[in-house]
Design goal:
Blueprint: H1 3-15, H2 18-24, H3 29-43, E1 48-51, E2 54-57, H4 59-83, E3 91-97, H5 99-116, E4 120-126, H6 129-138, E5 143-147, E6 155-169, E7 180-182, H7 183-186, E8 192-193, H8 199-211, E9 219-220, H9 224-232, E10 238-241, H10 246-250, E11 255-260, E12 265-273, H11 280-293
Parallel strand pairs: 3-4, 3-5, 7-11, 8-9
Antiparallel strand pairs: 1-2, 5-12, 6-10, 6-11, 6-12
Helix pairs in contact: 1-2, 1-3, 1-4, 2-3, 5-11
């Protein structure tokens, strides 16, 4: 039994599928199956049962999955602590951010890191939360910013800040004294929304279901700049945090109304793979993001 086999098994246990785990780990399915067979031989016990929909853990498999997560987390902490003993912060760190968070924190992050750690190289990838999460799980990204929701158990996740969601509209669509709008009334408007793979869409879909109303956007777009441009053109309304539209709101190009009954908000989470230790550079990025979280405009702190 080795660490590579344990890591692979934890991903199989989480996904309930050899093919999906192989895809996440960038392995062929036969190679992953060999790792599993070697692990079962080393432990002399059956860990998985195959079903019509994938695989299911046996009692021994459930026990191993729980213990393996603890072992891998402890090992990652040990490796990170040893790596942090180096006084010079160098290397290359890949960071993934969703567009709404990227607007408010990427510039400050790069500026601060360049000032604090001039020998550290940073690559920032802007993508949807689901794609950032997959980048972390596959090892393509070292650190990611996610929105709360279905975050994998294989990831460490801690809150950076919380952001309330507002209905964003063209000024001609908002009365001078209007500052709030009930969610039921939001659902009656022509909405411009991200597609179903976006966490914001899932949140709104759930709230609509609870209200017993359909969510039927007139336009779907996954690019933040497209959402904002279409609202600016008075094509419809969208839902976003105010922090991602500071300039547009301060100049009056767009108007924001707080959504009520229910109020909608989401947590912005800092995340990385639990069983992959952070390098000294990764720890520097994490510490900097924690420092900057309190400076995000129009956001709520923990």
């Amino acid at each position: 039994m080795d660490i590579k086999q344990l890591r692979s098994f934890v991903h199989i246990a989480e996904l309930g599928s050899l093919s999906r785990a192989a895809e996440r780990l960038n392995l062929s399915q036969p190679a992953l199956s060999r790792q599993l067979n070697l692990l079962e031989e080393a432990l002399d016990t059956k860990l998985l049962e195959r079903t019509g929909r994938g695989v299911k853990l046996t009692e021994a498999g459930q026990m191993l999955a729980e213990r393996a997560r603890v072992i891998l987390t402890d090992l990652a902490r040990l490796e990170a602590d040893l790596s942090a003993r180096s006084s010079q912060v160098t290397g290359h760190v890949h960071v993934g951010v969703p567009p709404s968070a990227g607007i408010v924190i990427t510039g400050a992050l790069i500026e601060t890191l360049r000032d604090r750690y001039p020998d550290l190289n940073i690559t920032v990838a802007e993508d949807l939360t689901g794609d950032v999460q997959e980048g972390l799980l596959s090892g393509r990204l070292d650190i990611g910013i996610l929105h709360d929701g279905m975050i994998s158990r294989s990831l460490h996740a801690e809150q950076l800040w919380r952001e309330d969601l507002f209905l964003i509209s063209h000024p001609s669509q908002v009365g001078e004294q209007e500052t709030e709008i009930a969610y039921e009334d939001v659902l009656s408007l022509p909405l411009i929304m991200p597609t179903n793979k976006h966490g914001l869409r899932a949140m709104m879909q759930e709230a609509a279901f609870r209200a017993g109303r359909p969510l039927t956007p007139v336009v779907e777009a996954d690019a933040l700049r497209v959402l904002v441009d279409l609202v600016t053109r008075n094509v419809g309304h969208t839902v976003l945090p105010r922090s991602s539209l500071v300039q547009e709101l301060s100049t009056g190009r767009l108007k924001a109304r707080r959504i009520t009954n229910p109020e909608l908000s989401r947590k912005v989470m800092l995340s990385w793979l639990q069983d992959r230790p952070l390098s000294a550079g990764g720890k520097a990025v994490v510490d900097t993001l924690r420092d900057l979280a309190g400076t995000v405009p129009m956001a709520n702190q923990k």
